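Here is the promised in-class demo. Please do not try to memorize the tokens; focus on the logic of going from shape to residues.
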């Protein structure tokens, strides 16, 4: 008998323009491909609002789909009053009475085997689910969220802003540590999260990484050899921080040393501060229609992350395309790739500069690293096996 699964998401996971949407979309797709009966209740947020008529055919395969509009924008007044509480403002923005009513309605007219919460931002509704359902409750963990804010606070130069970020981090850590232990099963997206759970005695977890679909890999296209690129959502603070650091400290130094190599910056919500930097060898592309085709057309992928947490889906997708990737230890966290074998790690200005010289001067060896990256991903991150193993685990532990 097919598993009946209700998935709760903190936004509609479409369009597929960032790692969060891609990861949530894939787990819905993965359950459907394994023959599960899937229902979906999404927040349709002010920040990531989606017109439902634009949703793809996959949504027609759902037993039920409902979305509830909620405002999750940072409100200065509510943020100020939150200072006088002990609650996490990061999480509080996702609490909404209309969403809770919709959830109760679904639980009152249907029964489920599993209710899956996508990230801790849907976890405020765990009490409601426990009250109205006997389903097992899973939490899909995309990041250890307080790690992101902790790293942002460590890099913040403004004293007052750093103190505020430290407060947000502390409250988020307390909330996260408490709520994760209340789920029946945790589904970490990377090995780093899995290790964190074990270290903190949260042993009821099952590793479910992002999976690569072999059928969707495109053949090679004509590539601009003297190019490197970055692609990522530019409304995510760690991406902005990393790109700005790379441009200021690395690109401005190394570009004159390289023979007509161009850098392409792509991603949604490109800030004006970056658009203004466009030049002959720096192309500010913004959002691209086809991420895969864009990546195939370029050569070396740059992921200069200084903060953040969780697995980099864009890195895994690029590895599957045979891209040679330069990233930091933080960018490579949880993937399991090996420096100089299937990925290139650089953490300092000097290391980035030396690695870029290597990629454009020893092109044969750099290309080999990209080929190894593809083989690594196809060995360890095949989508069909990942979701088949997950369903088997759920069935065995019912």
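The designed amino acids, position by position:
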């Amino acid at each position: 008998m097919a598993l009946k699964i209700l998935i709760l998401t903190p936004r509609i996971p479409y369009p597929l323009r960032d790692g969060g949407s891609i990861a949530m979309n894939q787990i819905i797709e993965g359950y459907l491909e394994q023959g599960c009966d899937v229902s979906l209740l999404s927040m349709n947020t002010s920040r990531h609002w989606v017109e439902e008529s634009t949703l793809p055919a996959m949504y027609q395969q759902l037993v039920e789909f409902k979305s509830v509009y909620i405002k999750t924008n940072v409100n200065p007044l509510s943020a100020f009053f939150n200072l006088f509480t002990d609650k996490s403002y990061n999480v509080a923005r996702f609490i909404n009475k209309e969403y809770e009513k919709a959830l109760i309605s679904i639980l009152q007219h249907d029964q489920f085997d599993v209710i899956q919460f996508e990230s801790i931002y849907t976890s405020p509704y765990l009490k409601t689910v426990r009250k109205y359902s006997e389903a097992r409750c899973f939490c899909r963990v995309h990041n250890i969220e307080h790690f992101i804010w902790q790293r942002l606070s460590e890099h913040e130069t403004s004293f007052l802003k750093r103190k505020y970020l430290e407060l947000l981090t502390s409250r988020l850590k307390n909330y996260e540590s408490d709520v994760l232990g209340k789920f029946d099963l945790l589904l970490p997206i990377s090995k780093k999260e899995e290790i964190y759970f074990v270290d903190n005695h949260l042993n009821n977890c099952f590793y479910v990484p992002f999976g690569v679909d072999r059928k969707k890999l495109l053949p090679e296209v004509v590539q601009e050899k003297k190019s490197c690129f970055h692609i990522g959502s530019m409304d995510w603070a760690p991406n902005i921080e990393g790109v700005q650091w790379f441009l200021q400290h690395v690109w401005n130094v190394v570009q004159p040393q390289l023979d007509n190599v161009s850098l392409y910056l792509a991603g949604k919500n490109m800030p004006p501060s970056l658009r203004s930097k466009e030049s002959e060898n720096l192309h500010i592309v913004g959002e691209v229609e086809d991420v895969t085709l864009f990546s195939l057309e370029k050569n070396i992928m740059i992921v200069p992350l200084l903060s953040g947490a969780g697995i980099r889906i864009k890195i895994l997708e690029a590895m599957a395309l045979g891209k040679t990737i330069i990233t930091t230890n933080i960018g490579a966290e949880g993937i399991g790739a090996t420096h100089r074998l299937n990925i290139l790690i650089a953490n300092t200005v000097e290391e980035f500069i030396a690695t870029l010289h290597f990629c454009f001067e020893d092109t044969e060896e750099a290309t080999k690293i990209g080929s190894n990256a593809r083989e690594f991903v196809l060995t360890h991150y095949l989508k069909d096996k990942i979701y088949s193993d997950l369903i088997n685990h759920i069935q065995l532990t019912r």
